[in-house]
Amino acid sequence: MFEELLLLGRKEESIALQTRKKTDVPNSMGPECVPPTEVRKFERLLKKFSNWKPRKPPTGVYNCVGHVWASRRTGVYDRLDEWVLRIRDEDGYRVLNTGNEYPRTGDLVTYWETLNPHTNFLHIGIVEMREGIEPSSQRLPFVWSKLDGTSGEVVHYVSDVPYREIFGDFQTEFWTDRP
Amino acid sequence: MTSLLLLRLLTEEFHDSIGVLLPPAALRRQLVNSSDVRALATGIRFGEVTADETREFVGMIMKEFRPGEYFHNNLALAALAVAMETWSSEFVEEYLLDLARLTAPELNISARIARECIKKRFALPKNDLRVLHYPRRIAPRFTSRGMRMSELPEEPAITRLDFLPKKYARSS
Protein backbone atom coordinates (compact mmCIF):
# COMPACT_ATOMS: atom_id res chain seq x y z
CA MET A 1 0.00 0.00 0.00
CA PHE A 2 2.92 2.33 0.65
CA GLU A 3 5.01 0.98 -2.23
CA GLU A 4 6.29 4.37 -3.36
CA LEU A 5 7.64 5.16 0.06
CA LEU A 6 9.21 1.74 0.34
CA LEU A 7 10.84 2.27 -3.04
CA LEU A 8 12.12 5.66 -1.99
CA GLY A 9 13.86 3.77 0.79
CA ARG A 10 13.74 6.65 3.24
CA LYS A 11 15.20 5.68 6.58
CA GLU A 12 15.26 7.29 9.98
CA GLU A 13 18.66 8.65 10.88
CA SER A 14 20.18 8.27 14.30
CA ILE A 15 23.24 9.64 16.02
CA ALA A 16 25.60 8.22 18.62
CA LEU A 17 23.81 8.56 21.94
CA GLN A 18 25.04 6.73 25.00
CA THR A 19 24.38 6.64 28.69
CA ARG A 20 27.22 7.29 31.14
CA LYS A 21 27.78 3.54 31.22
CA LYS A 22 28.25 3.59 27.43
CA THR A 23 25.03 1.79 26.59
CA ASP A 24 23.80 2.83 23.15
CA VAL A 25 20.39 4.46 23.26
CA PRO A 26 18.26 3.84 20.15
CA ASN A 27 17.22 7.18 18.73
CA SER A 28 15.86 8.75 15.60
CA MET A 29 16.04 12.28 14.25
CA GLY A 30 12.74 13.57 12.96
CA PRO A 31 12.42 16.00 10.06
CA GLU A 32 13.28 19.57 11.00
CA CYS A 33 10.47 20.97 8.90
CA VAL A 34 7.03 20.99 10.50
CA PRO A 35 4.02 21.68 8.23
CA PRO A 36 1.75 24.70 8.82
CA THR A 37 -1.03 22.42 10.10
CA GLU A 38 1.16 21.34 13.02
CA VAL A 39 2.20 24.93 13.68
CA ARG A 40 -1.46 25.93 13.86
CA LYS A 41 -2.20 22.99 16.15
CA PHE A 42 0.57 24.16 18.48
CA GLU A 43 -0.92 27.67 18.45
CA ARG A 44 -4.32 26.25 19.35
CA LEU A 45 -2.75 24.30 22.21
CA LEU A 46 -1.16 27.52 23.46
CA LYS A 47 -4.58 29.16 23.42
CA LYS A 48 -6.13 26.26 25.29
CA PHE A 49 -3.38 26.19 27.90
CA SER A 50 -3.10 29.92 28.25
CA ASN A 51 -0.60 29.74 31.12
CA TRP A 52 1.99 27.98 28.99
CA LYS A 53 4.83 30.28 28.01
CA PRO A 54 6.21 29.40 24.56
CA ARG A 55 9.97 29.25 24.33
CA LYS A 56 10.55 27.92 20.83
CA PRO A 57 8.37 27.34 17.74
CA PRO A 58 7.57 23.78 16.61
CA THR A 59 10.36 21.54 15.38
CA GLY A 60 10.31 17.85 14.54
CA VAL A 61 13.92 16.89 15.25
CA TYR A 62 13.58 15.79 18.86
CA ASN A 63 10.98 14.83 21.44
CA CYS A 64 10.91 15.32 25.21
CA VAL A 65 13.51 12.63 25.88
CA GLY A 66 15.82 14.11 23.25
CA HIS A 67 15.25 17.54 24.73
CA VAL A 68 16.36 16.42 28.16
CA TRP A 69 19.05 13.85 27.41
CA ALA A 70 20.25 14.48 23.85
CA SER A 71 20.61 18.26 23.84
CA ARG A 72 17.83 18.71 21.27
CA ARG A 73 19.70 16.69 18.63
CA THR A 74 17.52 13.60 18.30
CA GLY A 75 14.45 11.86 19.71
CA VAL A 76 13.98 8.61 21.60
CA TYR A 77 10.69 6.92 20.71
CA ASP A 78 10.92 3.17 21.18
CA ARG A 79 10.30 1.18 24.38
CA LEU A 80 10.29 4.38 26.40
CA ASP A 81 9.17 2.82 29.70
CA GLU A 82 12.28 0.70 29.66
CA TRP A 83 14.77 3.21 28.25
CA VAL A 84 13.82 6.14 30.43
CA LEU A 85 14.37 4.07 33.58
CA ARG A 86 17.59 2.65 32.22
CA ILE A 87 18.98 6.10 31.41
CA ARG A 88 17.95 7.28 34.88
CA ASP A 89 19.90 4.47 36.50
CA GLU A 90 22.93 4.55 34.22
CA ASP A 91 23.25 8.33 34.31
CA GLY A 92 23.19 8.42 38.10
CA TYR A 93 19.83 10.05 38.76
CA ARG A 94 17.94 9.28 41.94
CA VAL A 95 14.27 9.64 42.76
CA LEU A 96 13.61 12.73 44.83
CA ASN A 97 11.76 12.05 48.04
CA THR A 98 9.41 15.00 47.76
CA GLY A 99 8.21 14.39 51.31
CA ASN A 100 11.34 15.97 52.76
CA GLU A 101 13.18 17.41 49.79
CA TYR A 102 12.02 20.04 47.34
CA PRO A 103 13.01 19.92 43.64
CA ARG A 104 15.53 22.46 42.38
CA THR A 105 16.16 24.05 39.02
CA GLY A 106 17.82 21.53 36.72
CA ASP A 107 16.14 18.48 38.24
CA LEU A 108 13.90 16.40 36.00
CA VAL A 109 10.21 15.68 36.27
CA THR A 110 8.72 12.58 34.69
CA TYR A 111 5.04 11.93 34.01
CA TRP A 112 3.66 8.40 34.16
CA GLU A 113 0.24 6.88 34.04
CA THR A 114 1.16 4.85 37.12
CA LEU A 115 4.16 4.59 39.42
CA ASN A 116 5.14 1.47 41.38
CA PRO A 117 5.62 -0.12 38.96
CA HIS A 118 6.40 2.57 36.40
CA THR A 119 4.05 2.02 33.51
CA ASN A 120 3.16 4.10 30.48
CA PHE A 121 5.70 6.84 30.39
CA LEU A 122 4.08 10.04 29.19
CA HIS A 123 6.59 12.88 29.35
CA ILE A 124 9.80 14.27 30.80
CA GLY A 125 10.88 17.85 31.33
CA ILE A 126 13.48 20.02 33.04
CA VAL A 127 12.46 21.71 36.28
CA GLU A 128 12.82 25.41 36.77
CA MET A 129 11.87 26.80 40.17
CA ARG A 130 10.02 30.11 39.96
CA GLU A 131 8.46 32.54 42.37
CA GLY A 132 4.76 32.04 42.99
CA ILE A 133 2.16 34.76 42.47
CA GLU A 134 2.57 36.02 46.04
CA PRO A 135 6.06 37.47 46.56
CA SER A 136 6.35 35.70 49.91
CA SER A 137 5.14 32.33 48.66
CA GLN A 138 7.31 29.30 48.20
CA ARG A 139 9.07 28.84 44.87
CA LEU A 140 7.05 26.59 42.57
CA PRO A 141 8.22 23.93 40.13
CA PHE A 142 7.76 24.93 36.51
CA VAL A 143 8.89 22.73 33.64
CA TRP A 144 10.70 23.26 30.36
CA SER A 145 8.82 20.94 28.06
CA LYS A 146 8.81 19.69 24.51
CA LEU A 147 5.43 18.07 24.74
CA ASP A 148 5.57 15.98 21.59
CA GLY A 149 7.67 15.24 18.54
CA THR A 150 6.28 18.14 16.53
CA SER A 151 5.44 20.76 19.12
CA GLY A 152 7.51 23.71 20.18
CA GLU A 153 9.04 24.15 23.62
CA VAL A 154 7.02 25.67 26.42
CA VAL A 155 7.42 26.49 30.08
CA HIS A 156 4.47 25.45 32.24
CA TYR A 157 3.54 24.74 35.82
CA VAL A 158 4.34 21.15 36.74
CA SER A 159 0.73 19.96 36.80
CA ASP A 160 -0.54 22.16 33.96
CA VAL A 161 -0.42 19.35 31.41
CA PRO A 162 -3.16 17.76 29.28
CA TYR A 163 -2.84 14.22 30.65
CA ARG A 164 -5.64 14.40 33.20
CA GLU A 165 -8.27 14.87 30.51
CA ILE A 166 -6.83 11.95 28.57
CA PHE A 167 -6.22 9.36 31.27
CA GLY A 168 -8.26 10.64 34.16
CA ASP A 169 -5.11 10.85 36.24
CA PHE A 170 -1.35 10.74 35.97
CA GLN A 171 1.58 10.66 38.36
CA THR A 172 4.77 12.62 38.48
CA GLU A 173 8.15 11.69 39.82
CA PHE A 174 11.07 14.06 40.28
CA TRP A 175 14.57 12.83 39.54
CA THR A 176 17.81 14.56 40.45
CA ASP A 177 21.50 14.03 39.83
CA ARG A 178 22.37 15.88 43.04
CA PRO A 179 23.92 13.74 45.75
CA MET B 1 -16.96 8.92 -2.49
CA THR B 2 -14.94 8.90 0.69
CA SER B 3 -16.84 8.19 3.87
CA LEU B 4 -17.31 11.05 6.30
CA LEU B 5 -15.92 8.80 9.02
CA LEU B 6 -12.60 8.73 7.18
CA LEU B 7 -12.63 12.41 6.28
CA ARG B 8 -13.22 13.22 9.92
CA LEU B 9 -9.65 12.02 10.62
CA LEU B 10 -8.30 14.95 8.62
CA THR B 11 -10.13 17.65 10.51
CA GLU B 12 -8.68 20.08 13.01
CA GLU B 13 -11.32 18.97 15.52
CA PHE B 14 -10.00 15.43 15.45
CA HIS B 15 -6.39 16.61 15.82
CA ASP B 16 -7.40 18.88 18.68
CA SER B 17 -9.33 16.10 20.40
CA ILE B 18 -6.12 14.07 20.52
CA GLY B 19 -4.00 17.06 21.56
CA VAL B 20 -0.32 16.44 22.18
CA LEU B 21 1.06 13.30 20.63
CA LEU B 22 1.97 10.93 23.45
CA PRO B 23 4.57 8.15 23.19
CA PRO B 24 3.38 5.36 20.85
CA ALA B 25 1.87 2.96 23.41
CA ALA B 26 -0.03 5.70 25.23
CA LEU B 27 -1.12 7.35 21.98
CA ARG B 28 -2.53 4.06 20.74
CA ARG B 29 -4.62 3.74 23.88
CA GLN B 30 -5.74 7.32 23.53
CA LEU B 31 -6.82 6.63 19.95
CA VAL B 32 -8.67 3.49 21.06
CA ASN B 33 -10.71 5.72 23.38
CA SER B 34 -11.32 8.44 20.80
CA SER B 35 -14.98 8.70 19.79
CA ASP B 36 -14.00 9.37 16.17
CA VAL B 37 -11.84 6.28 15.99
CA ARG B 38 -14.52 4.17 17.68
CA ALA B 39 -17.09 5.43 15.16
CA LEU B 40 -14.74 4.55 12.31
CA ALA B 41 -14.10 1.09 13.78
CA THR B 42 -17.85 0.52 13.92
CA GLY B 43 -18.21 1.78 10.36
CA ILE B 44 -15.57 -0.66 9.17
CA ARG B 45 -17.13 -3.52 11.09
CA PHE B 46 -20.59 -2.93 9.62
CA GLY B 47 -19.40 -2.34 6.07
CA GLU B 48 -20.11 1.37 6.04
CA VAL B 49 -16.44 1.92 5.23
CA THR B 50 -15.12 -0.56 2.69
CA ALA B 51 -11.58 -1.70 1.96
CA ASP B 52 -11.62 -0.02 -1.46
CA GLU B 53 -12.76 3.22 0.06
CA THR B 54 -10.02 3.04 2.69
CA ARG B 55 -7.39 2.25 0.07
CA GLU B 56 -8.54 5.22 -1.98
CA PHE B 57 -8.46 7.42 1.13
CA VAL B 58 -4.91 6.38 1.99
CA GLY B 59 -3.83 6.98 -1.62
CA MET B 60 -5.41 10.42 -1.51
CA ILE B 61 -3.69 11.55 1.68
CA MET B 62 -0.34 10.04 0.69
CA LYS B 63 -0.29 12.40 -2.30
CA GLU B 64 0.45 15.14 0.20
CA PHE B 65 3.61 13.41 1.40
CA ARG B 66 6.68 15.60 1.02
CA PRO B 67 10.13 14.15 1.74
CA GLY B 68 11.92 16.07 4.48
CA GLU B 69 8.74 17.46 6.03
CA TYR B 70 6.83 15.88 8.92
CA PHE B 71 3.76 14.27 7.34
CA HIS B 72 0.75 16.15 8.65
CA ASN B 73 -1.60 13.19 8.07
CA ASN B 74 0.42 10.93 10.34
CA LEU B 75 -2.34 10.96 12.93
CA ALA B 76 -4.98 9.95 10.35
CA LEU B 77 -2.88 6.94 9.29
CA ALA B 78 -2.32 6.03 12.94
CA ALA B 79 -6.04 6.37 13.75
CA LEU B 80 -6.92 4.16 10.80
CA ALA B 81 -4.48 1.51 12.04
CA VAL B 82 -6.07 1.58 15.50
CA ALA B 83 -9.62 1.46 14.08
CA MET B 84 -8.78 -1.65 12.08
CA GLU B 85 -6.43 -3.43 14.48
CA THR B 86 -8.93 -6.02 15.67
CA TRP B 87 -10.54 -6.60 12.29
CA SER B 88 -9.56 -9.71 10.43
CA SER B 89 -9.11 -9.23 6.70
CA GLU B 90 -6.34 -9.35 4.14
CA PHE B 91 -6.61 -5.64 3.60
CA VAL B 92 -6.07 -4.89 7.28
CA GLU B 93 -3.06 -7.21 7.44
CA GLU B 94 -1.60 -5.52 4.41
CA TYR B 95 -2.22 -2.04 5.78
CA LEU B 96 -0.77 -2.72 9.22
CA LEU B 97 2.26 -4.64 8.04
CA ASP B 98 3.10 -2.17 5.27
CA LEU B 99 2.75 0.82 7.55
CA ALA B 100 4.71 -0.86 10.34
CA ARG B 101 7.71 -1.58 8.16
CA LEU B 102 8.05 2.00 6.96
CA THR B 103 11.11 3.70 8.37
CA ALA B 104 10.64 7.13 6.83
CA PRO B 105 11.26 9.80 9.48
CA GLU B 106 8.28 11.76 8.17
CA LEU B 107 5.98 8.90 9.23
CA ASN B 108 7.61 8.11 12.54
CA ILE B 109 4.35 8.37 14.51
CA SER B 110 2.04 6.31 12.32
CA ALA B 111 4.61 3.56 11.71
CA ARG B 112 5.18 3.18 15.44
CA ILE B 113 1.46 3.11 16.15
CA ALA B 114 1.06 0.39 13.50
CA ARG B 115 3.78 -1.61 15.29
CA GLU B 116 1.89 -1.20 18.56
CA CYS B 117 -1.33 -2.33 16.85
CA ILE B 118 0.38 -5.42 15.47
CA LYS B 119 1.76 -6.19 18.91
CA LYS B 120 -1.78 -5.99 20.34
CA ARG B 121 -3.29 -7.86 17.42
CA PHE B 122 -1.05 -10.87 17.87
CA ALA B 123 -0.83 -10.82 21.65
CA LEU B 124 -2.39 -13.83 23.30
CA PRO B 125 -5.41 -13.05 25.41
CA LYS B 126 -4.64 -13.06 29.11
CA ASN B 127 -6.72 -13.94 32.12
CA ASP B 128 -7.13 -10.91 34.28
CA LEU B 129 -8.08 -11.14 37.93
CA ARG B 130 -9.37 -8.04 39.61
CA VAL B 131 -10.64 -7.50 43.12
CA LEU B 132 -13.13 -4.68 43.40
CA HIS B 133 -13.56 -2.67 46.57
CA TYR B 134 -16.63 -0.49 46.58
CA PRO B 135 -16.29 2.47 48.94
CA ARG B 136 -18.98 2.18 51.58
CA ARG B 137 -20.27 5.69 50.98
CA ILE B 138 -21.24 4.92 47.36
CA ALA B 139 -22.64 1.45 47.87
CA PRO B 140 -25.19 1.65 50.70
CA ARG B 141 -27.56 -0.69 48.88
CA PHE B 142 -25.21 -3.67 48.96
CA THR B 143 -27.24 -6.64 50.12
CA SER B 144 -25.00 -9.64 49.61
CA ARG B 145 -25.84 -12.33 52.19
CA GLY B 146 -28.47 -10.01 53.54
CA MET B 147 -25.85 -7.62 54.88
CA ARG B 148 -25.74 -3.94 54.08
CA MET B 149 -22.42 -2.51 52.98
CA SER B 150 -22.40 -0.23 55.99
CA GLU B 151 -22.49 -3.29 58.25
CA LEU B 152 -19.48 -4.92 56.64
CA PRO B 153 -16.14 -4.75 58.39
CA GLU B 154 -13.62 -2.15 57.20
CA GLU B 155 -11.36 -4.76 55.66
CA PRO B 156 -12.47 -6.23 52.35
CA ALA B 157 -13.88 -9.73 52.51
CA ILE B 158 -10.83 -11.16 50.76
CA THR B 159 -7.73 -10.13 52.60
CA ARG B 160 -5.42 -12.99 51.86
CA LEU B 161 -4.45 -13.77 48.33
CA ASP B 162 -1.51 -16.03 49.22
CA PHE B 163 -3.02 -18.84 47.28
CA LEU B 164 -2.69 -16.83 44.06
CA PRO B 165 0.46 -16.42 42.01
CA LYS B 166 2.39 -13.29 43.07
CA LYS B 167 1.48 -11.17 40.08
CA TYR B 168 -2.22 -11.58 40.83
CA ALA B 169 -1.87 -11.13 44.55
CA ARG B 170 -0.50 -7.62 43.89
CA SER B 171 -3.94 -6.46 42.77
CA SER B 172 -5.25 -6.73 46.33
Please specify the SSE layout and strand pairing.
The complex is a heterodimer of chains A (179) and B (172).
Chain A: H1 3-8, H2 36-48, E1 53-56, H3 64-69, H4 80-90, E2 94-95, E3 108-114, E4 119-130, E5 140-146, E6 153-157, H5 163-167, E7 171-176
Antiparallel strand pairs in A: 1-6, 2-7, 3-4, 3-7, 4-5, 5-6
Chain B: H1 4-7, H2 12-18, H3 24-33, H4 35-45, H5 51-62, H6 74-84, H7 90-100, H8 108-122, H9 166-169
Helix pairs in contact in B: 3-8, 4-6, 6-8, 7-8
Concise summary:
The complex is a heterodimer of chains A (179) and B (172). Chain A has 179 residues and is of the alpha+beta class.
How do the SSEs of chain A run, as a string of H and E?
HHEHHEEEEEHE
- Derived from helix and strand composition plus strand pairing, the structural class of chain B reads mainly alpha
Output mean pLDDT of chain B.
81
Widest sheet of chain A: strand order? 1-6-5-4-3-7-2
In the predicted model, the low-confidence regions of chain B spanning at least 5 consecutive residues are none
Biggest interface in this structure? A-B, 44 and 37 residues
Could you state the order of secondary-structure elements of chain B as H and E?
HHHHHHHHH
Fraction of residues in helix of chain B: 40-55%
Oligomer state of the chains in this structure: heterodimer
Number of helices of chain A: 5
Whole-number average pLDDT of chain A? 90
